[in-house]
């Protein structure tokens, strides 16, 4: 049974091959005879077939398909792009956060250091100023004390120098009205008597 | 007339104490000139020469020197005498704190004429700031007998007394204040 089937199949194949060879030969003989006209006819036929196959509906369908496919591809790419963008954004955020934190930490450290330096400088300056002020105060105190002592001595000296005028003025103001000239005559004559010789000499020898 | 006839001009005794300074002398000289004119007029009018009323200064001058001013020569000599005194007599200038009374000036002039010079003249000044005493100024010298001068001469004494008082007060002031006295009736 099997052999028979195999023979049938082989016979069918042989027939099919003979027919194919014939077709090729027949087609090769027709082309060489009227080759040029055959080509044109083929071109025209193909154009007609093209026009027939790719009509407006088919084109519209192809366009719709292409649009859908393009939209699908764009959607997929957009999704991928969105994912990449999210990932990149998150990475960028992390990177920025890290970098900014690092920069801020550095800057804060520098700022803190500069503040500490400025504080130290200010403290040193204030200490120097305080020392200078204390020194100036001490000098000023000594100078003021010296001037006070000098002024006091000058006042006492002036008072002692003008003591007679002060007492004379005081006596005059106190009892000046009660001093009678007649009561002074005895003392005036005593003074004149004490200087009598000098007066007489001046009168005698004076011009 | 009698003196001129005898040929011995009368010697002046001096100036009365009321004649103090050159101003009084000038006044006497002017009065004598007026007296001359008056007597000359009387003489021209053929009247009996009569001495007109004179000032107190002139009366004192007449009485001190026993002058007969009806005599022309004696008047002339008196005028010359006064002019000579005004020109040559020593002048003292004494300043007082107040205007002296005439009695005071008279006593002072009496002493000056007795002890300094019989014809000394005096000009009185006023310096209220000298207080007490006087300031005498002669031709070349200056004598300060004022109270201020006396204070100045005794300044050291004054200062020593003042220092004694201040040094005595200083320890008392520096010593701590004594404790408050207990109240009366409160037993201690």
Mean pLDDT of chain B: 80
The pair of chains with the biggest contact is: A-B, 29 and 37 residues
User: Regarding quaternary structure, how should these chains be classified?
Assistant: heterodimer
Q: How would you spell out the order of helices and strands of chain A?
A: HHHHHH
State the helical fraction of chain B.
40-55%
The CA-CA distance between the termini of chain B, in Å, is: 106 Å
Give the termini separation of chain A.
203 Å
Structural class of chain A: mainly alpha
Provide the number of structural domains of chain B: 2
Amount of helix of chain A: over 70%
Number of helices of chain A: 6
Low-confidence segments of chain B: 1-7, 179-188
- Rg of chain B is 30 Å
The tally of beta strands of chain B, per DSSP, is 4
Q: Which residues of chain A sit in consecutive blocks of at least 5 with pLDDT less than 50? A: none
Main sheet summary of chain A: none
Strand content of chain A: under 5%
Order of strands in the sheet with most strands of chain B: 2-1-3-4
Rg of chain A:
71 Å
| Class by alpha and beta content of chain B | alpha+beta
């Amino acid at each position: 049974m099997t052999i028979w089937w195999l023979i049938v199949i082989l016979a069918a194949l042989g027939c099919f091959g003979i027919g194919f060879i014939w077709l090729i030969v027949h087609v090769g003989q027709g082309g060489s005879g009227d080759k040029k006209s055959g080509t044109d006819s083929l071109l025209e036929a193909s154009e007609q077939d093209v026009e027939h196959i790719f009509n407006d509906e088919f084109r519209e369908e192809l366009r719709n398909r292409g649009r859908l496919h393009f939209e699908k591809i764009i959607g997929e790419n957009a999704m991928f792009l969105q994912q990449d963008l999210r990932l990149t954004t998150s990475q960028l955020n992390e990177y920025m956060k890290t970098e900014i934190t690092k920069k801020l930490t550095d800057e804060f450290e520098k700022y803190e250091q500069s503040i500490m330096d400025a504080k130290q400088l200010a403290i040193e300056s204030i200490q120097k100023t305080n020392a200078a002020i204390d020194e100036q105060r001490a000098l000023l105190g000594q100078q003021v004390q010296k001037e006070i002592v000098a002024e006091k001595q000058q006042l006492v000296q002036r008072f002692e120098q003008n003591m007679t005028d002060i007492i004379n003025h005081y006596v005059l103001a106190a009892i000046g009205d009660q001093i009678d000239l007649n009561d002074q005559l005895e003392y005036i004559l005593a003074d004149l008597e004490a200087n009598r010789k000098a007066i007489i000499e001046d009168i005698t020898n004076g011009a | 007339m009698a003196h001129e006839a005898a040929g011995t001009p009368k010697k002046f005794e001096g100036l009365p104490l009321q004649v103090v300074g050159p101003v009084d002398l000038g006044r006497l000289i002017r009065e004598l000139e007026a007296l001359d004119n008056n007597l000359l007029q009387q003489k021209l009018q053929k009247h009996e020469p009569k001495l007109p009323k004179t000032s107190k200064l002139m009366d004192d001058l007449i009485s001190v020197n026993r002058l007969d001013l009806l005599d022309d020569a004696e008047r002339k000599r008196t005028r010359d005498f006064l002019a000579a005194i005004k020109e040559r007599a020593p002048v003292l200038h004494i300043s007082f704190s107040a205007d002296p009374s005439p009695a005071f000036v008279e006593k002072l002039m009496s002493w000056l004429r007795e002890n300094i010079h019989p014809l000394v003249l005096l000009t009185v000044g006023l310096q209220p700031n000298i207080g007490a005493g006087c300031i005498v100024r002669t031709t070349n010298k200056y004598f300060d007998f004022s109270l201020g001068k006396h204070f100045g001469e005794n300044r050291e004494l004054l200062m020593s007394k003042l220092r004694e008082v201040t040094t005595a007060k200083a320890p008392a002031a520096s010593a701590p204040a004594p404790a408050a006295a207990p109240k009366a009736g409160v037993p201690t």
